[in-house]
Amino acid sequence: MAADETPDGPAEPTATKGDQTRQKVLEAAHALFLRQGYHGTSMRQIAAASGLALAGIYNHFADKDALFTAVIDAYHPYRDLVDALTYDAGETKTEFFRNLIARIRGILKRIRTDLVPLAFMDLVEFQGRHLRTVISSITPRLIETLPLVMRKSGKLIVEDVRQVYLILFANIVGFMVVRLILGDRMASLFKGIDEDQWFDLQMEVCLRGLTEPEKLAKPASRTRRPA
User: CA 74, 76, 77, 83 torsion: positive or negative?
Assistant: First the structure.
């Protein structure tokens, strides 16, 4: 057996001291950014919170912007989202998107609730520059799935399937924003509706449309007037 293997397979790589230090800096920066905002947090404060000298941070990150980018990268689930987008499940277009939504829902349940505040921070203070970088890394993989989706049976109301992804994205972001605003108060404000029910219904409406197709009205029978 090789030195780097265990009876169950290859051993997990051991984190180096540098990796451990970098992780401490990321955790400290993440907590301070959330509490004080980007511009309200200094590199000196991050160094103190992580137990390092200021110069020690610059051994790992060129500047505060690079550190914020690393925080976004560390706490954003985009790698899992790419896997969800490229996983082929379902014989029809409707089944594919319903299964995709279910996988995304699973990811949303696992991610940290502070992802949305980080995203808002980027939108307000950087006009979304860091998030656009993340999305740019996802989009090529998404585009690769389009031929696969179009070969499936069923029709879409939206002819351009790329717009379907945008609609899904807008609905999911909207869900996350409202969840952030309402928090645990949703159950008390909207009695009888829990988060899972709300998400499922919202996504079903997104898939099916807000109203059912109208049935064609039967032509009114003409009554012959008496002579």
Answer: negative
CB atoms within 10 A of CB 60: 18
The candidate with the shortest Cα–Cα distance to 182, out of 166, 169, 199, is 199
- The structure tokens 């914020």 sit at 68
**Is this structure's pTM higher than 0.70?**
no
Q: What confidence tens digit (pLDDT) does each residue in 93-106 have?
A: 888 888 888 888 88
Name beta bridge partners: 10. 5
Retrieve residue 129's tokens.
Answer: 């520059």
**pLDDT tens across 103-141, in order?**
888 887 776 667 778 888 888 888 888 888 878 877 887
Q: Which residue has the tokens 């970088």?
A: 133
Those residues with Cβ within 8 angstroms of residue 103's Cβ, 6 or more apart along the chain or in another chain: 84, 87
